[in-house]
Amino acid sequence: MTYIFAHRGSSKSAPENTMAAFRKALEEKADGIELDVQLSKDKVPVIIHDESLKRTTGTKGFVGEYTVEELKRLDAGKWFSQKFKGEKIPTLEEVLIWLQPTCLYLNIEFKNNVLPYYGMEKIVHDLVCHYGLQDRVIYSSFNHYSLKELKKVNPRVDIAPLYSSGLYEPWKYAKSMTAESAHPHWRTLNQAILKGFKKHGIRVRPYTVNDTKKMKWMFENDVEAIITDTPEIARSVRAGTHQSKTAKFINTLQKINPKSLF
Ligand code: G3P
Ligand code: MG
């Protein structure tokens, strides 16, 4: 069965990368959440997508120019709606503590493809280990050097290069960097590419799949997971897809032997 991961939390219903969005994802029964991690000035992993604070907090400057204490004073909810006024930028540690008693998977995206954060890989990995969440965490990044850096810290981690263009035989690329997974933009996929990934044992979790027809295609083609802003909608599409798969199977069996099932 294809897992459903909530992109930046349930980011259609609540402000992205906030505890409200993560709680919503759990409420909407997502199987996992995806979030973006950067480092504060005092090297604390914090959850925010843009390097600039402008869009989601209305503040000047960059994440790495503020200490965690300063970042905590910002409002990361009211840009989305007054209803979420007062939502804070979470630290990764807060998310891990919250996630620990749930069954959620966690996809941590290192947001270091524009600005570097030296040492972020080990800081994040140590925190994940501290909370015993190694088996539920997948690491991804558009900065593939960063993923290789993480592999030096722990060769057993599940790493997934993110990419958005038509790579030639991308499973070969994934293998070359000892990745077990790949997180392509949904537009880059077709059946031949999925077949190549499958044959070479690479798990595929496309992003950001918000269109219901595309979701259905992904479910029918058995990708490992989809990353979506709308986990609730994805769940109903998945349920429908499974039902129609079962119906198809029953029809085929009945054609072969009408008495086979009853
Ligand atoms: O990890 C999938 C997706 O989040 C990558 O793009 O820009 O939303 O972080 P972005
Ligand atoms: Mg992301």
Give a description of the structure.
By secondary structure, this protein is α/β, with parallel strands linked by helices. The chain has a single domain, classed as Phosphatidylinositol (PI) phosphodiesterase (TIM Barrel, Alpha-Beta Barrel), CATH 3.20.20.190. 37% of the residues lie in helices and 16% in strands. The chain has ten helices and nine strands. It has helices at residues 19-27, 54-57, 68-71, 92-99, 120-130, 144-153, 170-176, 191-199, 212-220, 231-256; strands at residues 3-7, 32-39, 45-47, 105-110, 137-141, 158-163, 181-184, 203-204, 225-228. Helix 5 (120-130) links the parallel strand 4 (105-110) and strand 5 (137-141). Helix 9 packs across helix 10 (231-256). The model has no long low-confidence stretch (mean pLDDT 95). The chain binds SN-glycerol-3-phosphate and magnesium ion. Residues 34, 36, 109 line the site of magnesium ion.
Sequence-ordered SSE layout with sheet pairings:
Blueprint: E1 3-7, H1 19-27, E2 32-39, E3 45-47, H2 54-57, H3 68-71, H4 92-99, E4 105-110, H5 120-130, E5 137-141, H6 144-153, E6 158-163, H7 170-176, E7 181-184, H8 191-199, E8 203-204, H9 212-220, E9 225-228, H10 231-256
Parallel strand pairs: 1-2, 1-9, 2-4, 4-5, 5-6, 6-7, 7-8
Antiparallel strand pairs: 2-3
Helix pairs in contact: 9-10
The chain binds SN-glycerol-3-phosphate and magnesium ion.
SN-glycerol-3-phosphate (G3P) binds at residues 7, 34, 36, 49, 109, 140, 162, 183, 207-208, 227.
